[in-house]
């Protein structure tokens, strides 16, 4: 009992903070929780904005997960293959990592090593903005996005301004021990991102330390709430180990909690409450077949036979925690476990001690989702040999409700009991008139 209480205290001290890293220090929220038409950064006319009030917009979203096996990236590591989406540039990029530091006691119990997460964010920033510049160059200096199409021409100053407008910004980056999630959006979308928040759950040693668990992020884009859950679940290929993973998922869903946003807002608090939810990570689900049978089927690329015995697929179809969630069709080889710097699965090149574990190939690294409005366009893996896992990536289109949805709800807000709470947020002064106390969405 005492060790668990001590561990919980350490965990709360380490993970209790809702702070996260971003490219901007403050984000002043409008009092009623929506951005006025005059504040929109696209500088389109009021008439056009009013015509769009009842519209929806579609955005391309990139999601990836990669267990990097505790290996720090070199400054010249090329992640172009990871970010490649068949020539399509996305509006939002969500990159999840596991084991960015080795999961040894000093990292689990000691101070957070943020130098590694800074390296990864630096690599992501350079790669995303390089892709933007290259995309502009390959398309005859024409920049396209969901808001407008602008011809840059041969004016260097105008060219630089348009590139700057298309740069990607980090809106949330959060690390818990070895888990890191980093969210990037196009600069023109940033003013429409509201209420960013994070929540960390440790499910590791003594069921509470952060060597296993999740880092969840949420934000609202226009009138649609998003939640991305980056997880590293319990490992193990023995019979019954999948129950530990299911238990981890249950813990993550029950213990993850986001702020409501104050008395004037009713933001989603739990993971399933959000409009669109994506769960990504080293989920560690294995294939319930004898090791030799698994290896033979992998050699023959009999993916369907393997997937019939895949633990996560069975959980999605008939389980309790993830039943009803969605996953794209898997047409790629298992992502785990490879010999270092090779395309050979561990065990085929086995030269270790007889007591060492032999791990059969498995699709440990997965991306699943829930919610209406998400459509998956791509689900594949990358071929980086940095670790014993291969990265997995997916691309979605997301339908997002625009301002009209919020404005329609304004009438019901004024009629609700929550409107009474305005008294604590609005002061009437004879000299200043109406003063609104605005709240920052997060602290750094």
UniProtKB/TrEMBL annotation:
Gene Ontology molecular functions: inositol-polyphosphate 5-phosphatase activity; phosphatidylinositol-3,4,5-trisphosphate 5-phosphatase activity; phosphatidylinositol-4,5-bisphosphate 5-phosphatase activity
Keyword Hydrolase applies: yes
Keywords: Hydrolase
InterPro entries per the UniProt record, alphabetical: Endo/exonu/phosph_ase_sf, IP5P_plant, IPPc
Gene Ontology annotations of biological process type: phosphatidylinositol dephosphorylation
Inositol polyphosphate-related phosphatase domain ranges (all copies): 57-404
Pfam family, any one: Exo_endo_phos2
Organism superkingdom: Eukaryota
Similarity-based family: Belongs to the inositol polyphosphate 5-phosphatase family.
Protein name: Inositol polyphosphate-related phosphatase domain-containing protein
Native source organism of the sequence: Acacia crassicarpa (northern wattle)
């Amino acid at each position: 009992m005492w060790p668990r209480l001590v561990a919980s205290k350490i965990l709360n001290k380490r993970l209790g903070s809702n702070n996260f890293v971003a490219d901007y220090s403050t984000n002043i929220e409008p009092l009623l929780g929506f951005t006025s038409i005059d504040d929109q950064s696209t500088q389109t006319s009021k008439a056009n904005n009013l015509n769009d009030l009842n519209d929806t917009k579609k955005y391309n979203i990139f999601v990836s997960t990669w267990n990097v096996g505790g290996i720090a990236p070199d400054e010249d590591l090329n992640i172009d293959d990871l970010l490649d989406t068949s020539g399509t540039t996305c509006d939002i990029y969500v990159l999840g990592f596991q084991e960015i530091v080795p999961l040894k006691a000093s990292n689990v119990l000691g101070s957070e090593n943020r130098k590694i997460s800074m390296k990864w964010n630096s690599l992501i920033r350079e790669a995303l903005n390089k892709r933007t510049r290259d995309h502009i160059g390959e398309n005859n200096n024409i920049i396209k996005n969901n808001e407008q199409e602008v011809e840059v021409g041969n004016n260097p100053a105008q060219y630089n301004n348009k590139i700057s407008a298309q740069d990607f910004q980090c809106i949330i980056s959060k690390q818990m021990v070895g888990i890191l999630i980093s969210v990037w959006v196009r600069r023109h979308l940033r003013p429409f991102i509201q209420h960013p928040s994070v929540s960390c759950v440790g499910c590791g040693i003594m069921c509470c330390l952060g060597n296993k668990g999740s880092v969840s992020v949420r934000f609202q884009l226009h009138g649609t709430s998003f939640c991305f859950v980056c997880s590293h679940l319990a490992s193990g290929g023995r019979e019954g180990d999948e129950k530990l993973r299911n238990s981890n998922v249950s813990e993550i869903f029950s213990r993850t909690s986001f702020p409501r946003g104050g008395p004037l807002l009713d933001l989603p608090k739990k993971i399933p409450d959000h409009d669109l939810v994506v769960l990504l990570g080293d989920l560690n689900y294995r294939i319930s077949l004898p090791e030799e049978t698994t290896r033979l089927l992998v050699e023959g690329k009999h993916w369907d036979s393997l997937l019939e015995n895949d633990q996560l697929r069975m959980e999605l179809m008939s389980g309790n925690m993830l039943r009803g969630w969605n996953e794209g069709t898997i047409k790629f080889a298992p992502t785990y476990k490879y010999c270092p710097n090779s395309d050979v699965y561990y065990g085929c090149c086995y030269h270790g001690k007889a007591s060492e574990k032999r791990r059969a190939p498995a699709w440990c690294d997965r991306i699943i989702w829930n919610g209406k409005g998400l459509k998956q366009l791509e689900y594949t893996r990358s071929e980086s040999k940095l670790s014993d896992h291969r990265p997995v990536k997916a691309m979605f289109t997301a339908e997002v409700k625009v301002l009209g949805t919020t404005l329609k709800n304004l009438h019901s807000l004024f009629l609700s009991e929550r409107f009474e709470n305005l008294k604590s947020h609005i002061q009437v002064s004879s000299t200043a008139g109406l003063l609104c106390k605005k709240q920052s969405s997060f602290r750094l």
